[in-house]
Amino acid sequence: MDLAIRGLRVLVTAGASGIGLATARAFAREGARVHVCDVDQTALNAVAASDPAIVQSVCDVADRAAVTRMFDQVTATFGGLDALVNNAGIAGPIAACEDIALADWERTLAVNLTGQFLCAQRAIPWLRKSSNPSIANLSSAAGRFGFPMRTPYAASKWAVIGLSKSLSIELGRDGVRVNAICPGSVAGPRIDAVFANKAAARGISAATVRDEALTKTSLRRLVSADDIANAIVFLASPLGANISGQVLPIDADTQALF
Ligand code: NAD
Description:
Blueprint: E1 9-13, H1 18-29, E2 33-38, H2 41-50, E3 55-58, H3 64-78, E4 83-86, H4 102-127, E5 134-138, H5 151-172, E6 177-183, H6 189-202, H7 206-214, H8 225-236, E7 247-250
Parallel strand pairs: 1-2, 1-4, 2-3, 4-5, 5-6, 6-7
Helix pairs in contact: 1-8, 3-4, 4-5, 6-7
The structure holds nicotinamide-adenine-dinucleotide.
């Protein structure tokens, strides 16, 4: 299948690792021009070494001035922008609501929600000039289900869906598609550590915790970062030209969070 995105100008936030890096690489493989930003300079240096075709810069998406500087750099280099992948998101505190510090609540909302708003604000004037414009906003399975002990994260991810659906209507007349992507738990060291911590807290094995988690998915498995990346690339391609305002779970049919 030819995705026909050679030369597409793409910005992926938090693209130095995880889903963001997988997405940046998936775009680059198809011949797109890709800029990643991230707060982690060391991780960006590693990307510069491993993927020299991917342009990168340091930016905290919650910092309005930094976002402005980053967009100036991206649009000066690329001469415009066709696709924004609002991927940056942090886990936030894992605690009961009454024990969460206001600063932790605010930081989670600042990165996960305000960061997407700030990047969309800067991207929109450029996307309006594009012949194939799109925004993918990373929500989560936690944007579709309640998630106890993770209230700031879940609140931010539900809010991402409201942002995405509203923007889709607002920008539709200019042909800009906006979709929310809802990954399930991605296989890898991060989820392995979560299983290990829960197992230690309950005095059971990590394998048991993992098996319990998988019973919450119809397909009985975790997903991969590449699963998410491939869907994002498809939506940004001309093949996704008539898909907007959607909330796309990529989660092995998750029925509940654990
Ligand atoms: P990750 O934890 O692997 O982090 C990715 C990158 O984000 C890191 O390189 C980090 O330096 C960067 N980052 C952190 N704060 C930033 C900021 N303020 N500005 C710019 N960059 C910043 O992330 P991931 O697991 O790949 O998740 C990517 C997105 O997908 C997030 O929005 C996350 O909430 C969502 N998501 C992930 C999963 C999962 O299981 N991994 C599941 C559902 C949703």
